[in-house]
Batch of 3 targets.
Target 1
Amino acid sequence: MRRSGTVAIGVLVWLGACGDTTPGPATGAEPVPRPSTSATLGIASPETGSVVRTDQVTLVVELEGATLTDITSTDLRPDEGHLHVTLDDQLISMTSGLEQVLPDLAPGEHLLKVELVANDHAPFDPRVVAAVSFRVKHS
């Protein structure tokens, strides 16, 4: 599996940008521990540093060790979840697919992140995130 060199940086940025979504009891007790996973995630397209010459790009995600589902559940499994896709720190989709077209991209630099989350939409612990940066330059 090919991985982006910016994954570590993307994880740090992602962790800073996302609040704690850990569900916990309404009584103020300690939060419920999050499940972990051995799944790995990467972004095959677009590549870090690439220049896109149209207003759209096709996101292609590589996932090993887990399957994607579109079902939301509190029955958490370490080998099952779905993807949260953000562009420039804005959530743009929650998907169970490995490919999608991102339309209407403005010219300039963009940061694209994908996170594998558990069936309840909250992150695994540790988080499973891939990130790339790319530039849109309309012809």
Target 2
Amino acid sequence: METQVKPAIVLDATGLVLGRMGGIVSKRLLQGERIMIVNAEKAVISGRKVSRVSEARLFLEVGHLGHGPYHPRRPDQIIRRTIRGMLPWRKPKGKEAYKRLRVFIGVPDEIKDRAVETIPQANASKLRCPYFTVGEFAKEIGWKTGGE
């Protein structure tokens, strides 16, 4: 008897708060769903940009270049790492859930025509504090886009 693989759900991260989106996505991954997140650079982080970037720069100084720990600087990798922190990653169910996650910068050609969902509970319009995008954060901590 063959098991059918469910098609992946496509989530648009535009305007979604990173932590709230990550919590909801991690629960859905643990329930067995396959999830693709598009527009990773347009997700938002709440708080003042200056303080978040200074925290990140201090954290980037930890470790050694060739020996780790390795710190993500690309927006898609930042989101993957955030969601990984919300999964029981060292247990088999957490590893399997993490394998079902795909994150993209922009929208790839192969999923342009697919239906896209969003998460209303994680919308940044509810925030009453300053916020900035993951793409802006990534550039501040050293992400070099392809055109530079």
Target 3
Amino acid sequence: MNKLGIDIGRVIIAPSNGNQDTSFLKGDNDAALATPAMPNALETISQLVSLFENNVWLVSKASPIIQEKTRMWLQYHHFFQITGMSECNIRFCLQRKDKAQICQELSITHFIDDRMAVLEHLRELVPNRYLFGKQKPNFVCPKNVIPVLSWEDVLNILTK
């Protein structure tokens, strides 16, 4: 059975200042709630929930304060109603490397993240890894990781 894991910051929640989550991480709750979703994220995730037969999980590294802001953001933007995901399918950890343990526990087969360092931790656990978004100039994506610039790319690759 295929299971999809998705990071949240800079994958679902758009960066507010270039490539940083500054207003979400350092701003007040109003600034966090005003942070938009990435273009087409919610609509695409809705399609992926169907494709993966409801086996879609949010897996994010966040401090307790950011976890609270993230949950507020998801509710405020009607994430679960729009995507059809279960509100129970969210896991947080305090360090990026800990996403590997979560993916192992959930038997995740596909994972989308914006950080290569996270995907490296998943190398032996998750066979299908996707590096989301624009990366630094001169970055070369490893052959066993699929680069995806947008949610449209994600959908195109996963529905082939």
